[in-house]
Amino acid sequence: MTATQTRSRAERGQPGQDRPPVRPHGTTPLSKRERPLWMLLPGGVLMIAVIVVPLLVGVFIAMLDLDQYTLRQWFSAPFVGFQNFAEAFTDSPLLHSIWISVSLSVLVTAVTVPIGVAAAISTQNRFPGRGLVRSIYLIPYVLPAFVVGTFFRTMLQPQGVVNSILHTDVLWLNGSASYWALAGVMIWTSWPFVYLLSLAGLQAVDNEVHEAAALDGVTWWAKLRYIIFPYLRGPLSLAIIISILHNINNFTLPFVLFGIPLPSSVEVMPVLTYIASFQSFRFGLSAAMAICSLVIVAIPLFVYLRAVKLDTGDDAGPNRKQRRADRATLAAAPTAADVDGARA
Q1: Rounded-to-integer distance, Cα 200 and Cα 196, Å
Q2: pTM of the predicted model, to two decimals?
Q3: What whole-number distance in Å separates Cα of residue 149 and Cα of residue 140?
Q4: Is the preceding omega at residue 261 within 30 degrees of 0, hence cis?
Q5: Strand, coil or helix: 79
Q6: What is the DSSP string of 76-104?
């Protein structure tokens, strides 16, 4: 090895040694632990002000006997602890409302998922007027909930269009039939969201995969099961969890469709909380109901986060150790220039 090659190799550094980073003049480098904190500080302050502080205030109000008589005292209202929570579960229709909200949400989601997937598959391939069909599919989703509620409230009247077409005299806006009326309207407004996410997932399927399946003579069911559905697993999981959360928290549609008071068969949690707060003026009791609703909504969200491993991250547990070992191995491996210098 010549002196020139030895000097050039020394300038490059030995294998496994990191070169000193080039830093602009006059700048002070931050450590790796400080950078994320500075970057997350504005968003963290905003999240604390918008989410954490109101949540803590709601929890505190839920432990006060706050009503129209003690509202002027505000935070000095009598402290009752968990008495509002006990009253919500024992002396109010909260458990009934939980059952109505959860069952409606599960039913609507179970019906909208196959409808949305079928609509996405029907508009995946090019055909004349595909853009128009896709636009028509989105009409139920882009209409405001107030407009949809008013429209169906008119159609579901005893002398409305629905009874005229079905030749019946069912009271859709009162009694046990109200549950199915609300479920039908929620299905009509919810399926385009599943359609959008399914259509986005279908765009990820490569055309070569479809061509290979056609050349192999794959049946349509086998193509759906082994090609289409695996690509839709992620988008459908997200669509299901968002649909469940949205249907549980749906306030505008039942409020406009049925008015106040709601029939017992459609007394959902958001409307019950509204009645307790702004009609009965039991602000402490309504805050306790809202906290219970938050816990119920957090359950499917937590299950989804655990399923996709978003709460722990990909670097947790053995993966972090393995990646550290891989980085150490790559750092210790000689570069191509080092190999060429050694050969010379």
Answers
A1: 6
A2: 0.74
A3: 12
A4: yes
A5: strand
A6: GSPB-TTHHHHHHHHSSTHHHHHHHHHHH
Pair of tokens at residue 334: 């000689």
What whole-number distance in Å separates Cα of residue 326 and Cα of residue 331? 9
Residue with tokens 């017992």: 264
Task: List CB contacts of 197: < 8 A, sequence separation 6 or more.
Answer: 116, 235, 236, 238, 239
131-156 tens-digit pLDDT: 899 999 999 999 999 999 999 999 99
Cβ atoms of 116 and 194 within 8 Å: the answer is yes
Q: How far apart are CA 271 and CA 260, in angstroms?
A: 9
CA–CA separation, 160 and 173 (whole Å): 11
Buried b (16+ CB within 10 A) or exposed e, 17-34: eeeeeeeeeeeeeeeeee
How far apart CA 153 and CA 32 sit, in angstroms, is 58
Residue 71 in tokens: 């509202």
> Phi first, then psi: what are they for 314, rounded to 5°?
-80, -10
Query: And the tokens for 56?
Result: 């803590």
Instruction: Please check whether residue 6 is in contact with residue 342, taking contact to mean a CB–CB distance below 8 angstroms.
Output: no
Residues of the chain with pLDDT under 50: 1-3, 6-17, 20, 22-23, 25-26, 310-318, 330, 334-340, 342, 344
